[in-house]
Specification:
1 helix, mainly beta, Type Iii Antifreeze Protein Isoform Hplc 12, elongated
Length: about 90
């Protein structure tokens, strides 16, 4: 089944006599929503076995990965691998 694509928001800008259209695309309610959104990333380098806390995790946008809705699931857990700063969790 094909997803119906729609333009959620857009912005038009002009620079050096060129026009740029910047669009945020999404998928209609008939399919899963695949808009760019926030995700959970490493705030600093994290070593395997370290406890995940608010001090070493943050959220960034845009991206595809673990949604901040799952934030509480990760807090207090041990890292299963090494993560570099800004790497998706």
């Amino acid at each position: 089944m094909a997803n119906n694509i729609f333009i959620n928001k857009f912005m038009i800008s002009q620079k050096n006599n060129k026009v740029f259209v910047i669009a945020e695309a999404g998928v209609s309610h008939f399919g899963s929503l695949k808009k760019a959104k926030k995700l959970i990333v490493a705030k600093i380098n994290i070593r395997k076995g370290e406890i995940l806390t608010e001090k070493n995790l943050t959220t960034k946008r845009p991206g595809f990965g673990i949604s901040p809705d799952k934030w509480d699931v990760f807090l207090g857990k041990k890292a299963k691998k090494n993560y570099l700063k800004d790497q998706n969790i």
